[in-house]
Amino acid sequence: MPATIDSVFAREVSQLQSEVAYKQKHDAAKGVSDYAHMKEPPDLRHAMEVNKHQSNISYRKDVQDTHTYTAELDRPDIKKATQISKIISNDAAHAQEAGMR
């Protein structure tokens, strides 16, 4: 069949419409995946929940380990602070006793 102006024009219009329809369909489906709508088997769901709980437990354990404070009572600065605190406390007690007499 010889290519006439009308047949060439009709072919081009058909191709453009096809491309436009394809792009519209693609844009409408953008961001939607079939994977998100798949059902997961019960054993996979159970494994995911167990993993999540184990991760949460280990995270909390690590946090507790890092937030506990253990001070050494034999450190010189703590000993000095304790001595100063006792001296101040004794001075305050003696001052109150002297004021009461």
From TrEMBL:
Keywords: Actin-binding, Repeat. InterPro entries: NEBU/NEBL, Nebulin_repeat. One of its GO terms (molecular function) is actin filament binding. PROSITE patterns: NEBULIN (PS51216). GO terms for biological process: cardiac muscle thin filament assembly. Signal peptide: none annotated. Pfam families: Nebulin. GO terms for cellular component: Z disc. It comes from the Eukaryota. This is Nebulette. It comes from Marmota monax (Woodchuck).
